[in-house]
Amino acid sequence: MKIIGFTGGIGSGKTQVLAYIEKKYDCRVILADEVAHKVKEPGQECYEALVELLGETILQPDGRIDRAVMAEKIFAGEGLLRKVNGLIHPAVKKYILDAIEQARREGKPDFLFIEAALLIEDGYKDIVDELWYIYAPEQVRRDRLKASRSYSEEKITGIFGKQLSEEEFRKHCRVVIDNGGSLEDTYRQIDRKLEEYL
Q1: Fewer Cβ atoms within 10 Å of its own Cβ: the N or the C terminal residue of the chain?
Q2: What is the CA radius of gyration of the chain?
């Protein structure tokens, strides 16, 4: 089983590329964003600590955390984002390490993909076999974000400014998939790479 870390800037098309891989190959895909929501569920790793940190006003009537209220609270409070990330990021990493361990024990599937925006920054390169960078030119990414999420130029520029540079991504990733052209071309690159491993 090969463990592949999957990263790239916002708008590079990671979700679409992973959907293709999931359909075609014997693999499991773990999305760090989804895991981050899971660990906030009642009874899970971060639930109690988050309620203690942010107060019961973040809870919905059914006891689940209201994401919008939580976000509002975090961004209104000084230093709260850092504290919340300090709870969530380690819990996400533990969940992923446990999933890797279980997959290794079972000896399947062929590939385990881990997608996270902060793969490089959070040290995931030490727990995966290799890192893949999904690349798309900046203008292509801007156009996609405007079309799919109706983001303004200012919002996009702000987000880009917080993400790693292309040079930084390329420095850490062994495989670069160019997703700036046609999807057929992207899929060909993926097939070529994954079939080398099978």
Answers
A1: C
A2: 18
Q: Quick one: 185 and 116 in the same domain?
A: yes
Q: Is the same domain home to 93 and 124?
A: no
Residues 17 and 71 in one domain: no
In the sheet where 111-115 sits, what is the strand order?
27-31, 111-115, 2-7, 130-135, 175-178
- Total number of domains constituting the chain: 2
Assess whether 129 and 184 both reside in one domain.
yes
Sign of dihedral through CA atoms 103, 28, 174, 37? negative
pLDDT at res. 7 = 94
pLDDT at 56: 95
pLDDT digits (tens, 9 = 90+) for 71-114: 999 988 788 999 999 999 999 999 999 999 999 899 889 999 99
Q: Say yes or no: 44 and 14 in one domain.
A: no
Give pTM, 2 decimals. 0.88
Q: Which of 37, 5, 45, 9 is nearest to 175 (CA)?
A: 5
Domain of 9, in residue numbers: 1-26+109-198
Packing angle, helices 67-76 and 80-106, rounded to 10: 130
Token pair 């504290």: residue: 83
Burial class of residue 139, CB neighbours in 10 A (0-12, 13-18, 19+): exposed
DSSP count for the chain of H helices, then E strands: 9, 5
What's residue 168's pLDDT?
Answer: 94
Residue-wise pLDDT tens digits, 21-34 = 999 999 999 999 99
